[in-house]
Write a structure and sequence with these properties.
The protein is an alpha+beta fold. The chain has 11 helices and 11 strands. It has 3 domains: 157 residues, tt1808, chain A; 78 residues; 91 residues. The longest helix is centred in the middle third of the chain and has 34 residues. It comes from Corynebacterium suranareeae. One of its GO terms (molecular function) is endonuclease activity.
Length: 360
């Protein structure tokens, strides 16, 4: 079962069972244990791997426990604190999770009520749990962009270095999105002045600042609408090439629009997923941040240190049969068919060898 299928199935289970669940224990049994087993892929019947009611020896209050500790061997993967389904999630009501995080060797924690899962790391300070989650999975509002990041949390693909690198990106992207959204709705005076300076030499008096603030708001709104329309036209063009060809002949304006859309480079979810997988594979050789992605019209390049003279691989996912091309020491590609994006893991040795050679 793919990560997408597992999450979709669990979301349906939440919708079905939530109305009849009345306790935290029932939430664990009906919703959270299936998440640990079916989504994350851990054996909930093996107490060496999934430890319920975990108690630390030192550093916490007597009698205090965390609901689940997830381990392989001696290595902690996650600590999980559970609340009753429908309960609000707040670290104010999960103090034991914070304390356990700070006294164990775990790098990641999950706070959940069975329908919302908040993933925490230690990005702000070593050995201290962050106050804000780097990712939130809401089974009532599933975001497909999270699938590759969730896959890195599974037992099969868990890699703390790669997950930490992805967590850092997710955290900052989420915060930047909030800043950008706020600026779209109510741009700061400094932002307005900066944008106005690119189109006028007028002195920025209070009157001009008010004038350009209104224009920036209007331009932002129009830009968003234009971008949505452009992407809708793009989808129509690629879904029906015959219609695109007919539209192309209707007028010069339409022709220019279609040419513009076709020439656009669109980075797909599959390419982002593939990039995350290559990072997870190769972070044993170099820091995950040094495995970068640069999209092109006919392929998506995976590079070392964002240097196009140091290619690692290329994705050809827009074909009937998706392929990956992996570069050898002579700079030549060896291409492999992929039945699914996860098949990239089958070529882990070649990818690691390529990165090790580039890093030598």
């Amino acid at each position: 079962m793919s990560i997408e299928q597992a999450i979709t199935s669990l979301a349906a289970r939440v919708r079905e069972l939530k109305p009849i669940i009345e306790t935290e224990e029932a939430t664990k049994t009906a919703l959270i244990i299936p998440f640990i087993s079916n989504v994350l892929g851990y054996d909930v019947t093996d107490p060496r791997e999934v430890i319920p009611e975990y108690t630390a020896d030192i550093g916490v209050k007597k009698g205090e426990k965390v609901d689940f500790a997830i381990k392989t061997g001696d290595d902690f993967h996650f600590l999980i604190e559970c609340k009753k389904v429908g309960s609000p999630l707040s670290l104010d009501h999960a103090n034991q999770l914070v304390r356990y995080f700070n006294v164990t060797d775990t790098e990641f924690a999950i706070l959940t009520n069975g329908e919302v899962y908040q993933f925490y790391g230690q990005l702000d300070a070593a050995n201290r749990m962050d106050e804000k989650p780097f990712m939130t999975l809401d089974l009532n509002n599933i975001d497909a962009r999270q699938f590759p990041h969730l896959e890195m949390c599974t037992r099969k693909h868990f890699n703390p270095q790669a997950l930490a690198a992805n967590a850092e990106e997710l955290k900052y992207i989420a915060e930047l999105k909030k800043v950008i959204a706020n600026q779209f709705q109510e741009p700061d005076a400094e932002i307005v002045k900066m944008l106005a300076a690119t189109v006028t030499t007028k002195r920025m008096t209070a009157q001009n600042l008010e004038f350009f603030t209104r224009l920036v708001n209007t331009a932002s709104s129009q830009f968003l609408k234009d971008e949505v329309n452009r992407r809708l036209r793009s989808a129509q063009v690629f879904d029906d090439p015959v219609q695109a060809q007919e539209a192309q002949s209707e007028s010069t304006t339409d022709e220019e629009t279609i040419d513009e859309v076709i020439s656009d480079i669109v980075t797909t979810e599959e390419e982002i997923h593939g990039h995350s997988i290559v990072r997870a594979i190769c972070c044993s050789e170099v820091p995950a941040q040094e495995i970068t992605m640069r999209d092109a019209k006919s392929y998506c390049a995976i590079l070392f240190q964002d240097n196009n003279r140091k290619p690692i691989a290329r994705f050809y996912f827009d074909r009937k049969i998706p392929r990956i091309g992996i570069f050898n020491p002579d700079g030549e590609q060896e291409q492999f068919d992929l039945e699914s994006i996860e098949d990239i893991y089958n070529h882990a040795d070649l990818l690691r060898s390529r990165v090790a050679a580039l890093n030598a």
